[in-house]
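**Protein of interest**
===
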Amino acid sequence: MSIDATLQQLLDDPKAFLTCNALIIYGSPSSASGVKRFVLQATDKSGWQSVAGGDARNVALYVLYEEGTFNAQGSGPVSTPFDAHYISMRERDPKSGSWGDSKDTHYTLPSSGKPRLMVTSKLNGCTFGIGSRSDGGGRLVSHLRPPLDSAMGVVAGRLALDTATRTGFAGHKLDVSVMSSAQQNGTVIGQRSGGHWTFYAQRFQVGRTMDGVISDVQVYH
């Protein structure tokens, strides 16, 4: 199967793809959120398993990244570039204690037009926030992470992160917080159909040699 056909499988049925394949998304070197060009690449990494949906089975690992910015050691074919809304991960400034203005940390996914796909970099201690539908069908989203060397402590850091996520949704209801940790990572993509966004979260643990286990795939409407 060609890599473009594999990409089409991801677009046609994200849940099925994320259940049967590992997917790691790399962030954009330019940190701002917005529409960017991405590619999907196959890898030769082995040792990945999925227990999502039932029995354990061996699965392939794919990587998704902004065109021209990353190469998985040339280990597999690269898809035709495609456009997607990219949600930038914003990290808490340990000096100011701020994640920045909400206009920089939160992003509105439109209810019409192209692209109809949303991606964000791998969650590893982050929270991905999904707001309620606006009157026009758009969704406000965010991707925040406290500093990894925070002196706040785990509990205080989580509370601060939760507060920052909710504060940015002022005027909107925060429907879902997709949380992660250093041990339980996550891949989140969104897809719009009929004017409504659906989000898919793949949770996994990854080892030092890029092996890993997919534990489950959640769907949020």
